[in-house]
């Protein structure tokens, strides 16, 4: 405001301000969400859904980022669980976006749904550089970024994986990460039943053996721009 500027200069400045305000708003919202999770808030509005359908919906929503990165995503397995679909989609989106950012063009991101230790585990795996053990121990910590020098570090304010952990805990689940044989896998789990259904027998309703993909014959794929390769 101290000197005359052209309309184009003012428009560019205002647009830059709006983008920064949006980034700050997202950080504040994420911090408020994590604060509620810290107070023991549980997921509400739970509905019984096919997790394969929810995964397919999330991958469809991320079709443009997948195409831009020239990677594709496939999903397999299925199970029904009581979840807050908005929170579930948020957690899965964070994991898939994390995989996209660490994939080379032409790579495939694998999303799997499995029963594990009385819960349903959703894992997102992608080929990538090995992750050091000292880094692995902090991946789900807030504001932790293993590669602060990445070109997109301003957009990644280090809360994405912390939110995944919070969503899992709000659904009485856990998180995990592994880096083996050139494949990095990030996963979260959700309880099969909502709190009001805990008295029901999970074993009776989930006959599959632990660690065996549920409905492994059901396979869905959302491809990026190199799907034909």
Automatic annotation (TrEMBL):
<feature type="domain" description="Histidine kinase">
    <location>
        <begin position="1"/>
        <end position="194"/>
    </location>
</feature>
<dbReference type="InterPro" id="IPR036890">
    <property type="entry name" value="HATPase_C_sf"/>
</dbReference>
<dbReference type="InterPro" id="IPR005467">
    <property type="entry name" value="His_kinase_dom"/>
</dbReference>
<dbReference type="InterPro" id="IPR004358">
    <property type="entry name" value="Sig_transdc_His_kin-like_C"/>
</dbReference>
<keyword id="KW-1133">Transmembrane helix</keyword>
<dbReference type="GO" id="GO:0005886">
    <property type="term" value="C:plasma membrane"/>
</dbReference>
<dbReference type="GO" id="GO:0000160">
    <property type="term" value="P:phosphorelay signal transduction system"/>
</dbReference>
<dbReference type="Pfam" id="PF02518">
    <property type="entry name" value="HATPase_c"/>
</dbReference>
<keyword id="KW-0472">Membrane</keyword>
<dbReference type="GO" id="GO:0004673">
    <property type="term" value="F:protein histidine kinase activity"/>
</dbReference>
<protein>
    <recommendedName>
        <fullName>histidine kinase</fullName>
        <ecNumber>2.7.13.3</ecNumber>
    </recommendedName>
</protein>
<keyword id="KW-0597">Phosphoprotein</keyword>
<dbReference type="InterPro" id="IPR003594">
    <property type="entry name" value="HATPase_dom"/>
</dbReference>
<keyword id="KW-0418">Kinase</keyword>
<dbReference type="InterPro" id="IPR050428">
    <property type="entry name" value="TCS_sensor_his_kinase"/>
</dbReference>
<keyword id="KW-0812">Transmembrane</keyword>
<keyword id="KW-0808">Transferase</keyword>
